[in-house]
Amino acid sequence: MKNTFIDNYNLNDWLLLLLRVSLALLMITHGYPKLEKLLSGEEIKFYNFMYLGPKISLILCIIGEFVAPLFVIVGYQTRLAASVSAIGMFVAAFGAHYNDPLSDKEHSLLFAIGFIYIFIAGAGKYSLSKLISNK
Questions:
Q1: Rounded CA gap, 112 and 117, in Å?
Q2: Domain spans of the chain?
């Protein structure tokens, strides 16, 4: 059975836009302080992901928590950006917070679940990718 209310008002696309923008904005609030840390010029003390060094690990974290969410917000290369953020959140939960209790991993895991949904669903109708593909 078809739900005409949802179809007539593109509710799925509006809800996907709401999820994309709200989740990515919340993620940026975690990434921006890390960007400031990188640009401050002070010594970087950060989780050393795969022995790449704290600075490279911080840069990768900034990509996942600041840059990729910007792409998710505008809806450009959304699936790729969402997957980068989701992977970053799994690294945060099971790498940086490996020995921490579940309550400390919870935020990372909730973000990961949201970005996985966006990865599966795509950007939706209200996105830069859709605007570009229609030209």
A1: 9
A2: 12-133
